[in-house]
Design a protein that fits this description.
Structural class: alpha+beta
Strand order of the largest sheet: 17-19-18-23-20
Strand content: 15-25%
Oligomer: single chain
CATH superfamily of the largest domain: DNA methylase specificity domains
Number of domains: 3
Largest sheet: 5 strands, mixed
Distance between the termini: 26 Å
């Protein structure tokens, strides 16, 4: 693959389309705001009528458009339109980028949404005055765009799409695995299905005889309602070790990897594990690997798990079971969603929960042998999720490292493919 590619500028190879949407032609529409896309995907499709829409719902889409948020462009709010979006209207907070033809839309999408490009757009946004870090198409119109032959663009797109699909498949697998474990937690500790089955003279489904014997066959009254006989309700403070975060001095932060990963709030949270963005050389409150992490400010109740020892800022709390039962701690905390929501709806602008209120939240307290039986089943599931996350991070880091070299023609495809294979083998 030649490195003698022509280079152009974004403003010469694409436009920021400003097509008005026809509400007469489509009275019911799907409105896409910046929160409705993430890392190339549309998160959901909320159907609305014209009267329900905010004022920024104005732009129409076409197949092969690239959506890139103007506000905080480095936050992953981008997507590619690979379908016929006749009834989609998008916010004016998006750039709707349309290729003029020399650069294929999908290749241009990869050029504009690799981490190197997003970091540059974020730098431009932060250098501009205004309430929020924001870019316009004009402000990034000089961004360099390679223009290799179409055949080479197609080869690169196939490679990059295959890599993205591999990452997506691993994420979907992790979602399914977590749903399996969460469903088991709900069955055992919320709906008490094994107890109800035995009460009705049935054998609990999907459970061997030894495990079924751990569950009683009747209920008894408690201060919070009926619980299996011999069980009780306790509190977060009684059942777990709770560590509320505290932000160290600002001059101890860095982004070059010195010290421990520092998590300040839900901005760092992902599907299951937070992303390492900031580090701290003088941590004051810490969590261990495997501890449950909870956002305690604006909003309250997002839940992640620590992949490593880390520093907790004031927007995060850490939860640990005294016996090291990581899975039970994690899914129990996930099960407090409705309780957490109350602290986001008390009339304050920014929701929060303090240590006293957190410790007072009710938690079911089964016997130890039931907890260990649950852990025996769910720990391998959670371990698989952790392994998959490691591969996802490796592939993502390689993609973000190799992609600028690939799209500039400085790295050949066979070399990139060998590097990917070696990293995950």
């Amino acid at each position: 693959m030649s490195t003698d590619w022509e280079f152009s500028e974004l403003g010469k190879e694409a436009i920021n389309a400003s097509r008005p949407f026809s509400f007469k032609q489509h009275p019911k529409v799907i409105f896409v705001n910046t929160g409705d896309v993430l890392d190339g995907k549309f998160l959901h499709a909320a159907i609305s009528t014209g009267s329900d829409l905010p004022g920024q719902a104005k732009k129409a889409l076409k197949i092969n458009d690239i959506l890139l948020t103007e506000i905080r462009p480095g936050n992953g709010r981008f997507a590619f339109v690979n379908f016929e979006p006749d009834e989609y209207v998008v916010s004016t907070k998006f750039m709707v980028i349309e290729s003029k033809g020399r650069v294929s839309p999908r290749f241009l999408y990869h050029v504009l949404t690799n981490q190197f490009a997003l970091n540059e757009f974020q730098r431009i946004a932060e250098s501009r005055s205004g309430t929020f870090p924001q870019v316009t198409f004009d402000s990034i119109s000089h961004y360099p765009v390679p223009v290799p032959p179409i055949s080479q663009q197609e080869e690169l797109v196939i490679f990059l799409d295959t890599l993205d699909n591999r990452i997506t498949l691993l994420r979907e697998t992790n979602t399914l695995l977590e749903q399996i474990a969460q469903t088991l937690f709900k069955s055992w500790f919320v709906d008490f299905d094994p107890v109800r089955a035995k009460q009705e003279g049935r054998i609990p489904e999907g459970m061997d005889e030894d495990t079924a014997a751990l569950f009683p066959d009747s209920f008894e009254e408690s201060e919070l309602g009926m619980v299996p006989r011999g069980w009780r309700y306790s509190t977060v403070g009684e059942s777990f070790i709770l560590t509320m975060g505290q932000s160290p001095p600002g001059d101890t932060y860095n982004q070059i990897g010195e010290g421990l990963p520092f998590y300040q709030g839900r901005t760092d949270f992902g599907f299951r594990f937070p992303s390492q963005r900031v580090f701290c050389t003088a941590p004051s409150r810490m969590a261990r690997k495997g501890d449950t992490l909870v956002s305690v400010r604006a909003p309250v109740g997002d839940v992640n798990m620590a992949m490593e020892e880390c520093c907790l800022g004031r927007g995060v709390a850490g939860i640990r079971h005294p016996e090291g039962l990581r899975s039970f701690a994690f899914y129990s905390t996930r099960g407090l969603r409705d309780r957490f929501d109350l602290f986001d709806s008390e009339g304050t602008v920014f929701g929060s929960i303090n240590k006293k209120d957190f410790q007072a939240l009710p938690i079911v307290h089964p016997p130890s042998d039931v907890l260990h039986a649950f852990e025996d089943i769910t720990s391998p599931i959670d371990h698989r999720i952790i392994v998959n996350e490691g591969v996802i991070r490796t592939l993502t880091d390689l993609r973000d490292t190799l992609l600028p070299r690939l799209i500039s023609g400085k790295l050949r495809l066979p070399e990139a493919e060998d590097m990917i294979q070696e990293a995950v083998s």
